[in-house]
Amino acid sequence: MKFKTCILPIFTLTCTLTFTGCSSPQTEEKQQQNNAIQKEPVQVIHPISDQPFYPLSLPGELKPYEEVVIYPKVKGFVKKIFADRGSKVKKGQLLAILEAPEISQHYLSAKSDENKFHEDYLYSYQAYRRLKQAASRNGAVAAIELDKARSKFRSDSAAYAAVKATTGASAQLQQYLKITAPFDGIVIHKNVSAGALVGDNNQTPLFSIAQTNRLRLTVAIPEKHAQSVGKNTKVSFTVSDHPGQSFQSVLSRKSDFLQQGTRAITAEFDILNDKNIWSGGEYAQVNLILKRPYATLWVPTGSIVQAQSGTFIVKVVSNMIKRVSITTGIRKGELQEIFGAVEENDQIVLKGTEELTDGAKIMLR
Length: 365
Prior knowledge:
Elements: H1 2-21, H2 25-38, E1 44-45, E2 48-50, E3 53-70, E4 76-81, E5 88-89, E6 94-99, H3 101-134, H4 143-175, E7 178-180, E8 185-190, E9 197-198, E10 207-222, E11 234-239, E12 247-250, E13 253-254, E14 264-272, E15 283-291, E16 296-300, E17 304-307, E18 310-317, E19 320-332, E20 335-340, E21 347-349
Antiparallel strand pairs: 1-21, 2-16, 3-10, 3-15, 4-6, 4-9, 5-8, 6-7, 8-10, 10-14, 11-12, 11-15, 13-14, 16-20, 17-18, 18-19, 18-21, 19-20
Helix pairs in contact: 3-4
Protein name: RND family efflux transporter MFP subunit
Domain YknX-like C-terminal permuted SH3-like: 298-362
Domain CzcB-like barrel-sandwich hybrid: 68-210
């Protein structure tokens, strides 16, 4: 026991001397340099909470409010065409007539069947009524005969309804031989001529029609600005074929879904074009005035450090340095919008540098 007690303090002394001897002049010099940097006083500021309007300029496109490509519903030959490229048409206006004799013959056959089944239905109905009246006198008509008449009447009624539906379908096919305009607009493409065979495997469109008295100004809003677009967002835009003129509109709708390819949402602004100022299809330069839906934090641009390790600001907590990773938003003048673990009452170093390391003590100016 005494042997162990005596050795313990010697061993402790030896370890102390060994670790002390491991310190090198270079380590001490580096530590002194760090202490010198850490003791330099710095100026701190508080982030600003603000919700300002800010401008954004993006490309856009004027598209027809409605646009449709018209294909034939049935197979047939183009008998006559009443519209050409550039023709202004009204809703329901006849554009072309197709010719399909087999459809007409099928309709005539179905109509003939309908007339026959209608006569059978009327005869069964009259026979049933007469037997029913006669059955009101006891013993005049056997019950089974009345049941047969009722069954015949119901069967003929169902058959007539079925053939009538067939006739209606055939009549509808005849209506498909007439090609009409689905809305007011202008014919932008006419792809066939009289005599052409269209329909079925021949998927050549007959016409393309666009509604140009009302247009959609479409703009792709980048992801970082998507939440700033609200129902009252206003825009002004210019087009190259009207130099020196600016036009205005208000947001009509937006997709609220980020397109995977562009990482943007699509916003649309309805434009009245009663006077045909625009042809539709023009590219536009769009200027928006946006505003975040909530207040965000802003710091001077000099407070943000861009380093290989990432983007950060330097926060002072209990006179000690703490690096905080951030992402940046929009910039307005000398202020930069930031997002991260930062609050409005935090102390932020006015001029951040990479030399300010985590955990180091610091003096405030």
